[in-house]
Write a structure and sequence with these properties.
The complex is a heterotrimer of chains A (about 190), B (about 450) and C (about 325). Chain A has about 190 residues and is α/β, with parallel strands linked by helices. Chain A is globular. The radius of gyration of chain B is 21 Å and the shape is globular. The chains are: A alpha/beta (about 190), B alpha/beta (about 450), C alpha/beta (about 325). Chains B and C meet through helix 6 of B and helix 4 of C.
Chain lengths: ~190, ~450, ~325
């Protein structure tokens, strides 16, 4: 009865990133975050469920390895702020888990798997707005597939992946899907 | 107009018809089937009606000057008699009038109905019963035999003037507080005794008031689930048992209205086995419907006594088949829309039934093999007329008998019941259900009141 | 979920868990600076209360407002309703006002069913006569789950109430809270026992998914939850029990009885309480008692229900089943 993220149908897609490439991309993003935030002070990572959450945790772990810094990490569910609620039956909510210390005055880095229309991120910004007042908000995504419908851009991108709107991008992560890969398939449907 | 005194033949004929009896148009009912009756099998034959009577039965009848009705495939029943109808006039003409109620009755194949006394004012005096009687004659759709109240105002404390009502032009013989129970045992005893003087009968609405205060639905699984106050079967059975014993004790006749439970049937069977003068009726809705229909809280299913369980329905059918229950009586209870379009607890009790009664009996008793058409004639015409002490009604179809008959098509394709009909009210519980058969024509003393399924 | 919530029987186990899990998520809203979500912005929720019940009405009002819905209150007193306007006419008025949801509390069993035939929006039963009160059962289940299945929300999520033993005590015959709880608790896997004098149990209770006992004392040591129902004094005049004193003595939860409960067991009451009749004051105020948190949980659970009924497509696919003929 809820529209949770659909499990991947048709693994006959083309693999565009394998586990090794994902690992390297995350390592690079972790370094970029440290650079651009001048050492990562006051940074908190908030993953957008479902797959943004394990990605955020992996980034936090990398940053911890490189700098010995304990970056607070959590999740931000955006369901209640979506702009397409009335087009589907009511969905089950994901978890919102804010690190102690909240978001006020912090640099919040939102983490998601795929950036597409930008509407999810807009909803995340609205949700964040009701939680407090960050000093700055940045966006890290594993894949940017283009076709923005709102003026939104990512600060950190794992891979730029030009796609047609007929194609579907599947991100698989070990924590959720028992494997790491990014695939494109031509399902002829909107994702 | 003088009232007939005791000892004279009671005959509630319509005054309008008396003066034209000999000039009456004759009718030849051609090709009709008279149902098998235990002596002979079903036979197709012709019936000649004239002068208010059945003039001849047979083939090749001389029917000069008669209008002909070709009715191959239809069966003929003696005109149906309802022992229990609410015509609502005087007082509740928004729900029904004598004219609309008797029109509905005629469409249902009835040539006589007993009009219950719970009108406003209550029919507890000669004045009111004569008024109802006159309204019936004027409308002319069927005979209206008023029922007199047992107690003044139905209040259950003082006997009404039963004797005066019996002597009135309305010739009341059946007395009932229906709607209410005569619960005071002493009063019930007195009433039973008193009517012996004029061969009257008390028709009891069996419902112990203390056990059914605020009751809404049969006490059982449904009432527990729906959170509606229960109406326990014992509240009916206990009164019936008491009244049978009282009637036996004083040597009087008791008629039990709208029997609804298997337990009541057992008690009546026992009383009859003792030779006591107990008779009983069942409604069409209690032969078909159960309390499960209350699940959506639609008050069209709210009735007194309430719909019961499958087991009760099965026992009631068996009892009607073996004669423990003597007859079908509709308890036609019309209500205006606003009385039924509300919360269950606020809604009025009652269902209409005149227009669908024969079809329901067809479905529940004939199609199930429990009763044949001869049996239907007995339960819906002969016995009710006998219990109501009516002459001129309920006579088997024979030469010289009154020309009251109903022509019914048992093979008509089953049709879905709609609320629309001749009755002013729409509260039929059968709306949306398929029922077989069709009343095609009704004749009242040789004059058609219904032809081709429509008022004549 | 279906379009209406009229009976706890409308909810499958999956439906009920979805509501409880959603409520878990929404519970944290109370700790945030901005206690509001935009989800039901532009929707109108009407509170149609024929019975005086400030507590429940405020609970629904708070729930709707926290989801940014517009709330209109229609209470029986001093309105056309009090002047005898029929339920149907009131329903048609609400339709004309564009109510997306009507929350109805009424003294007649089945009022919510009837209302659902006359309005196009969703109908939420906030208590109809002696029939049901499904959101009460939901907040009770939510409270039980939080207290006994997970100290923090992560432990409770997705879990039912399997194996928990709940004893409901009191006037079951006239209790809509009891009916809804028996249905919902057994749907969620709990074992329910009703403890009451025979006069306060429906004759047909044997067909319900629960056990029955006339002896409260024997049930207490095996109960994880004891839920006390309010007993009305009027029942005494209708001969349901001889006196309040005898009722209290045999079925009241006093301090001595509370001591017979297992360590972890909790005491619940839907309110309002008759202190000293069905429940002793000290018991009501003890740490086992969930009475106060039941109120807070009421807002959260009702938010979850409103979101799931109204937060998605305008008219969901599954309709309320029509009367079977």
């Amino acid at each position: 009865m809820c529209a949770a993220s659909n499990p991947v149908a048709g693994r006959d897609g083309l693999a565009v990133l394998d586990a090794e490439e994902i690992r390297r991309a995350l390592t690079r993003i972790a370094h970029e975050i440290l650079e651009r935030t001048h050492g990562g002070d006051d940074v908190i990572l908030l993953g957008i469920p479902t797959r943004g959450v394990p990605l955020a945790r992996r980034l936090a772990a990398r940053i911890g390895e490189f700098e010995g810094l304990d970056v607070p990490c959590g999740s931000l569910d955006v369901t209640m702020h979506r702009d397409d609620l009335r087009l589907h039956p009511a969905r089950a909510l994901g978890r919102t888990d804010l690190p102690p210390g909240g978001v006020d005055g912090k640099i919040v880095v939102l983490v998601d798997d795929v950036l597409y229309s930008g509407r999810t991120v807009r909803a995340a910004l609205d949700a964040l707005n009701d939680l407090g007042r960050p000093r700055a908000v940045q966006l890290a995504v594993l894949v940017d597939r283009g076709h923005r419908e709102l003026p939104i851009r990512a600060d950190y991108v794992g891979k730029n992946l030009p796609t047609s709107q007929r194609e579907v991008v599947h991100v698989l992560l070990t924590e959720v899907d028992a494997q790491d890969s990014v695939m494109i398939s031509d399902d002829g449907r909107q994702p | 107009m003088t009232a007939a005194g005791p000892g004279m033949d009671r005959d509630n004929t319509g005054m309008d018809r008396d003066s034209t009896v000999n000039d009456q148009v004759r009718w030849l009912i051609r090709g009709v089937t008279i149902p098998a009756d235990g002596h002979r099998g079903p036979r197709a034959t012709d019936i000649l009606l004239g002068g208010g009577s059945i003039m001849a039965v047979g083939a090749g009848l001389d029917h000069a000057g008669a209008r002909v009705l070709d009715v191959g495939g239809l069966i003929a029943l003696p005109g149906l008699v309802d022992l229990h109808t609410h015509l609502r006039e005087p007082g509740r003409e928004d729900a029904e009038t004598v004219a609309t109620g008797t029109a509905a009755a005629a469409l249902g194949g009835y040539t006589a109905v007993h009009a219950m006394a719970n009108t406003d004012p209550v029919a507890d005096t000669a004045g009111v019963v004569e008024q109802v009687w006159r309204l019936g004659r004027t409308a002319g759709h069927c005979d209206v035999q008023p029922v007199g109240a047992v107690t003044v105002g139905l209040a259950g404390t003082r006997l009404a003037e039963l004797g005066t009502m019996a002597d009135s032009a309305a010739r009341v013989r059946v007395f009932s507080d229906d709607g209410r129970c005569v619960s005071d045992p002493l009063l019930m005893r007195r009433a039973l005794e008193y009517v012996k003087a004029f061969d009257g009968v008390i028709a009891q609405h069996a419902q112990d008031p203390r056990l059914t205060e605020g009751a809404q639905l049969n006490e059982g699984e449904m009432s527990a689930r729906l959170g509606l106050a229960g109406w326990p079967a014992v509240a009916e059975e206990a009164i019936i048992a008491r009244d049978c014993l009282l009637a036996a004790h004083v040597g009087s006749a008791l008629h039990v209205c709208h029997v609804s439970t298997a337990g009541s049937v057992e008690i009546i069977r026992w009383a009859k086995s003792k030779g006591w003068a107990v008779t009983a009726e069942v409604t069409p809705h209690h032969l078909l419907l159960t309390d499960e229909l209350a699940a959506g809280y639609d008050p069209v299913f709210k009735v007194n006594p309430p719909l019961r369980t499958e087991a009760d329905v099965a026992e009631l059918r068996r009892a009607l088949a073996d004669g423990t229950i003597d007859c079908v009586a509709t308890d036609h209870a019309p209500h205006p829309v606003e009385a039924k379009e509300t919360e269950w607890a606020e809604a009025a009790f009652g269902m209409t039934g005149l227009e669908t009664a024969l079809r329901v009996v067809h479905r529940t008793m004939v199609d199930t093999g429990l009763l044949d058409w001869h049996g239907v004639a007995d339960r819906m015409s002969v016995r009710p007329a006998r219990i109501g002490r009516l002459t001129g009604q309920g006579a088997p179809l024979a030469v010289g008998g009154p020309a009251n008959l109903t022509l019914y098509d048992p093979a008509a394709p089953a049709e879905v019941v709609t609320p629309a009909g001749a009755s002013k009210s729409r509260n039929t519980p059968f709306a949306g259900m398929e029922l077989p058969g069709r009343v095609v024509a009704t004749f009242l003393r040789g004059v058609p009141t219904v032809l081709d399924g429509k008022l004549a | 979920m279906k379009r209406h919530l009229i009976s706890a029987a409308d909810l499958s186990r999956a439906d009920a868990l979805l509501i409880l899990d959603t409520a878990e998520e929404l519970a944290s809203l109370a700790d945030r600076p901005i206690k509001k979500l935009p989800t039901l912005r532009g929707r109108t929720v009407v509170n149609l209360f024929y019975e005086d019940s400030t507590r429940t009405r405020i609970s629904f009002e708070a729930a709707a407002k926290r989801l940014s819905a517009d709330v209109i209150n229609f209470s029986a007193k001093g309105s056309s309703v009090a002047k005898g306007e029929s339920l149907k006419d009131t329903a048609l008025t609400l339709e004309a006002m564009g109510a997306d949801a009507v929350v109805i509390r009424h003294g007649a069993s089945g009022a919510a069913h009837r209302l659902a035939e006359w309005v196009r929006g969703s109908v939420l039963n906030a208590g109809d006569g002696t029939h049901e009160h499904p959101t009460q059962a939901l907040l009770d289940a939510f409270t039980i789950r939080r207290r006994l299945r997970g100290a923090d929300s992560s432990g409770a999520r997705g879990a039912g109430l399997d194996g928990l033993r709940v004893t409901i005590v009191g006037d079951v015959l006239h209790s809509r809270v009891a009916r809804s709880n028996v249905l919902l608790l057994s749907t969620l896997g709990a074992e329910v026992t009703l403890a009451a004098p025979p006069t306060l149990l429906p004759l047909a209770v044997g067909s319900w998914p629960c056990a029955v006992s006339y002896d409260l004392d024997s049930e207490l040591p095996k109960s994880d939850v004891v839920m006390m129902l309010r007993v009305q004094q009027e029942r005494m005049t209708a001969a349901y029990f001889p006196s309040v004193r005898e009722y209290s003595r045999r079925y009241g939860l006093d301090v001595a009885r509370m001591a017979r409960l297992p360590e972890h067991a909790i005491v619940m009451h839907p309110g309002p309480m008759n202190r000293g009749v069905e429940i002793a004051a000290e018991v009501a105020d003890s740490v086992r008692s969930t009475i106060v948190e039941q109120v807070a949980n009421g807002v959260t659970t009702r938010m979850a229900v409103l979101y799931l009924l109204l937060g998605g497509t305008e008219f969901p696919v599954t309709e309320f089943p029509a009367v079977a003929r």
